[in-house]
Write a structure and sequence with these properties.
The chain is an alpha+beta fold. The protein has 8 helices and 32 strands.
Length: about 550
């Protein structure tokens, strides 16, 4: 037994010696390679070194030849350090001026740190950039507005901007999908509606278009409508690529997953479907809604958020886990909540009030006081729109006029802004007296991973909101844009600045404005059926006169 223990100890000691010897050999190889890099490929010193380009050319082949050996000898800690240095180098390169490279000592280290923090937060799914304060000035609509006319014979129902905001796609109740040039304001192409009896009716819509979406790489555009079909088009070639027939009722929402060509769709058949646009194939179907799903949104994670119209639920679909989170909507605006909103009204006043914002807040407070005296109550019977602030926060709107802020941590809204777009006054001119009712929230859209989002209704304006930072959830009114008509859809994109070192980015807002609401004809206003574009210039608060 003693001899066996001695032999076992001897074997262990031999293994340790072999490990130490292998580490010593690796160190010798590294030192030899470092001497080769410092003295030249022939191993001897050279007085005529040459310029920097000669050195880069001299060591380029040697580094490529030894890359596999270096990767084999590299420890995990050294690999993480090398990847971190490469990433910081790419960030530095992206923050250089377009005119040419600048010296490394002139690079703003705070900017690089902010960029790294922003990228880390975006990968983790949390919003971090605070840009809403850059749009708190008084907006001059004639200077920032471009109207795209003569595209739709009937009210437009959906709109989508390409990632670079170069092109705009819009769909309407006339069944036409129109491609616009945002910069020149011209109509580039029209995919007209087709009749069902035509043999080529599968290469276009034959009924109202209700949803449109553009892929994050700007290559594909998808459209869906009441004909229960989803059509896929090429952005660069303006041609039809394919069609999906699997939905059994009207397709009401489309959303592409960021950095992929995976498409999510929702329909009045209560199903959510997944598609692979690269292969033009069907992937999966998700069940859960008890009523038609009318809106959908997604960011970069493998998940999507939808709203069921009259089942009064918001559902977050975790596709990779084959699970869903159900959030209960149906916010009620009763006397208790109206009194609570009146008590918090002074806290919502901005420190430096914009005249339009101050007027809107005053009108909102007056509306609350009027309803408090009339003993009014409104209940949310339909949730109509949804947008994601980040991977864990989203905003919904419905027929009660309330904007609800949601978090994945709670099943109920963490914040509710009641009667966000005011009320429609009582109508006593008709045969029946119509009581006052809230303005239906018809569209919401956000700049992803920032504190800025937009909401719209038929009250004649688009409202801009700022999500509060810190532990207290909520949002406040930032600005107001005048728009006449039903705003059936919104699309928002950030413009890439000319100076890559600048974090100040302008925002483009596209609005589908019509005479009627998107999903029906129960109301009608006097307005033009147009697409309106608003190019909002980002102005830091210190720059506002």
């Amino acid at each position: 037994m003693a001899k066996d223990r001695f032999l076992a100890q001897g074997v262990t000691h031999t293994k340790r010696q072999r490990g130490a010897q292998s580490q010593k050999n690796q160190k010798n190889q590294r030192s030899q390679k470092s001497r080769m890099r410092s003295h030249g490929s022939d191993g001897s010193d050279s007085d005529g070194v040459g310029d920097v380009s000669d050195l880069e050319h001299q060591y380029e082949d040697a580094s490529d030849a030894m890359s596999s050996a270096d990767e084999f000898l590299e420890t995990p800690a050294e690999k993480r350090l090398r990847l971190a240095k490469d990433y910081i180098g790419r960030v530095q390169a992206s923050t250089q001026l377009a005119a040419g490279a600048i010296d490394a000592e002139q690079i703003d280290r705070d900017l690089i740190a902010e960029r790294l923090t922003s990228d880390a937060n975006e990968r983790s799914g949390r919003w971090s950039r605070q840009i809403a304060r850059n749009f708190a000035y008084t907006i001059d609509e004639p200077r920032v507005t471009r109207v795209l006319r003569y595209g739709h014979a009937l009210p437009p129902t959906c709109v989508a901007l390409t990632p670079d905001a170069r092109f705009v796609y819009s769909g309407g109740k006339d069944g036409a999908l129109v491609k616009w040039d945002r910069v020149e304001g011209k109509k580039l192409h029209v995919f007209r509606a087709l009749k069902k009896k035509r043999p080529d009716h599968n290469v276009g819509h034959c009924d109202e278009i209700l949803a449109v979406a553009v892929s994050s790489d700007g290559r594909f555009v998808a459209s869906g409508g009441r004909d229960r079909r989803i059509h896929v088009w090429s952005v660069s070639e303006d041609r039809h690529l394919g069609v999906f027939h699997q939905h059994k009722d009207a397709v009401t929402g489309l959303a592409f997953r960021r950095h992929t060509n995976h498409l999510y769709s929702c329909s009045l058949d209560r199903m959510v479907k997944l598609w692979n646009i690269d292969e033009l194939g069907y992937m999966d179907t998700l069940f859960g809604h008890q009523d038609g799903a009318v809106a959908i949104d997604a960011l970069q994670r493998e998940q999507a958020v939808t709203v069921g119209c009259r089942d009064k639920t918001v559902r977050l679909w975790k596709i990779a886990d084959d699970a869903q989170l159900v959030f209960r909507a149906g916010a009620a605006t009763d006397q208790h909540r109206i009194t609570k909103a009146l008590a918090s009204a002074p806290d919502m006043q901005p420190s430096e009030p914009n005249p339009r914002v101050a007027s809107a807040l005053t009108a909102h407070e007056t509306t609350l006081r009027t309803l408090a005296g009339a003993d009014a109550e409104f209940t949310e019977d339909c949730v109509d729109c949804i947008t994601m602030i980040d991977e864990e926060t989203f905003v919904s709107g419905g027929d009660s006029g309330a904007l609800c802020l949601w978090s994945v941590q709670k099943k109920k809204p963490v914040f509710i802004h009641h009667l966000s777009h005011g009320i429609v006054p009582a109508d006593t001119t008709g045969p029946y007296d119509a009581p006052p009712r809230p303005c239906w929230i018809s569209a919401v859209a956000a700049v992803p991973f920032t504190d800025l989002f937009f909401s719209a209704s038929s009250d004649g304006c688009i409202r801009m909101w700022r999500v509060r930072a810190g532990k207290t959830p909520g949002f406040d009114l930032v600005n107001v844009i005048a728009v006449n008509g039903f705003v059936n859809a919104l699309s928002v994109r950030e413009l890439v600045p000319e100076d890559p070192m600048s974090n100040i980015r302008d925002v483009v807002v596209a609005a589908a404005v019509g005479q009627e609401p998107r999903l029906g004809r129960w109301s009608k206003v006097s307005a033009r059926n147009v697409i309106k574009l608003f190019t909002l210039r980002a102005v830091p608060p210190t720059s506002v006169q």
